[in-house]
Design brief:
Blueprint (H helix, E strand, L loop, with lengths): L7 E6 L7 E8 L8 E6 L3 E6 L9 H5 L3 H4 L3 E7 L6 E3 L13 E6 L5 E8 L9 E10 L2 E2 L3 E2 L9 E6 L5 E6 L9 E6 L10 E2 L10 E6 L4 E6 L9 E6 L7 E2 L10 E6 L5 E6 L8 E10 L11 E7 L9 E6 L6 E2 L5 E4 L3 E11 L5 E12 L17 H12 L7
Length: about 425
């Protein structure tokens, strides 16, 4: 056997234990009234919400002529602007003419440039013996004027379509419906945009999200994560908020406490991949719905030292990988590190520093050992731990954070 220079391929296996945790803060907003305020949607510098509260903007003829409890519960869409922070708002609904008198209006969803609104609205029945249904309508804004609402082409006089959410690119509309051939009573469906504001027939989003329970209030983020609510078997109680990246395989996950509670939690929206946002819940009194702001805070108060418990490498020789069956490998990792007779061993070193790895071969038929067919000097450097501060990061540690960030981003199983 001729001896020639060989190359070793090493696969590094590092395990980092990060010493921080996250806590979630929930804040009430001053949008809330004594009635139901729910289903927030981002709109320009603020929010659009749905509420059945009363104010001077909307007046229903039924309320004037034949006031009843049902009339009092008619919902409308309200617009709010942020003021000093994320929980204080200014009502700017006056002049917003999307709401149709005498019927329920909302929830709603706006296109990314806020020039198109999709919203749910009651469709009064033409037959007095049939119940009214809910359909989805759209309106476009030109020169600050909204066009008359137009029904989407898949609306029905028999089944309901509600809780619309338009994707960031405007090409897919998600919604909730009770049409036949679903998985549960209420499922999440979607339609693909065609030409001239026409949409494909409803497509069920599938068993990865829908269950035999109800799935409602979808919201799709720019990261392709679908957030929704469900009263499925593993909820804390009532409706809980779940999420799933629709472009990746994997299970649907449930939001932790206190985003989810034993009450109804729904209408979740976010602009920054779930770090901050808004949701609806009746957690205050288990009666009326309110809108809450949430903020995920990284907590460094109980940090532990970063540790690397293992320095593990996988070895194999690219030139001596395929040998006769009677020729075996002998990997020598050092006096204190031991040997391996595997063709492709993984060895975990006890310490950092220089390690001399030697590969020998043995002919098991003759017992002849060919020493040191290949040699490799492996340097395992000391790991420099970087220090996190709540406000700043030490400048000389930024390069290590950048390196870790680059390595993690190259792994398709992680999201940074």
């Amino acid at each position: 056997m001729s001896l020639k220079k060989t190359h070793l391929l090493l696969i590094l296996n590092l395990v980092l234990q990060l010493g921080y945790s996250q806590k979630i803060e929930i804040y009430n907003t001053d949008i809330n009234s004594i009635k139901d305020d729910y289903a927030p949607s981002f709109y320009q510098n603020g929010l659009a919400i749905t509420s059945n509260k009363k104010n001077a903007f909307f007046s229903n003829t039924f309320e004037k002529n034949n006031k009843s409890e049902q009339d009092d519960n008619l919902s409308n869409i309200y617009l709010y602007e942020f003021t000093n922070d994320n929980v204080h708002f200014k009502d700017v609904t006056n002049g917003f003419i999307i709401n149709i008198p005498d019927v329920h209006n909302g929830p709603c969803s706006f296109s990314s440039n806020y020039d198109t609104i999709f919203f749910a609205k009651t469709i009064p029945s033409k037959n007095s013996k049939k119940k009214s249904t809910i359909g989805i309508f759209y309106s476009t804004k030109t020169n600050d004027l909204w066009s008359p609402p137009t029904p989407l082409n898949f609306n029905s006089e028999t089944y309901n379509f509600s809780h619309p959410c338009i994707s960031p690119n405007g090409k897919t509309l998600y919604y909730v419906s009770d049409i036949p051939k679903g998985i549960g009573k209420k499922d999440i469906w979607y339609s693909i945009k065609k030409s001239n504001h026409k949409w494909s027939q409803p497509i069920n989003i599938g068993t990865g999200i829908n269950t035999t329970s109800d799935e409602i209030f979808p919201f799709i983020s720019k990261e392709s994560v679908l957030y929704f609510s469900s009263n499925r078997y593993d909820s804390y109680g009532g409706y809980d908020i779940y999420f799933k990246n629709i472009n990746l395989n994997g299970k649907t996950n449930k939001m932790p406490y206190p985003i989810n509670t034993e009450y109804n939690d729904f209408g979740f929206i976010t602009k920054d991949n779930g770090k901050t946002g808004y949701l609806s819940s009746n957690r205050k009194n288990n009666i009326d719905d309110d809108i809450y702001y949430f903020n995920r805070i990284t907590d460094f108060s109980n940090c532990e030292e970063t540790s690397i418990p293992k320095y593990c490498f996988t070895f194999y020789d690219t030139d001596l990988y395929k040998l006769e069956p009677h020729v075996k490998h002998i990997w020598n990792f050092g006096v204190e590190e031991g040997q391996s007779h595997e063709k492709e061993p993984m060895h975990c070193f006890k310490s950092t520093g220089n390690h001399n790895i030697r590969l020998s071969l043995v002919d098991t038929l003759t017992g002849v050992v060919i020493q040191n067919v290949s040699n490799y000097q492996l340097l395992i450097p000391e790991v420099k731990e970087f220090y996190f501060d709540k406000k700043t990061i030490e400048p000389d540690k930024k390069e290590y954070i950048h390196l870790i960030n680059t390595k993690l981003k190259s792994t398709d199983k992680l999201s940074i």
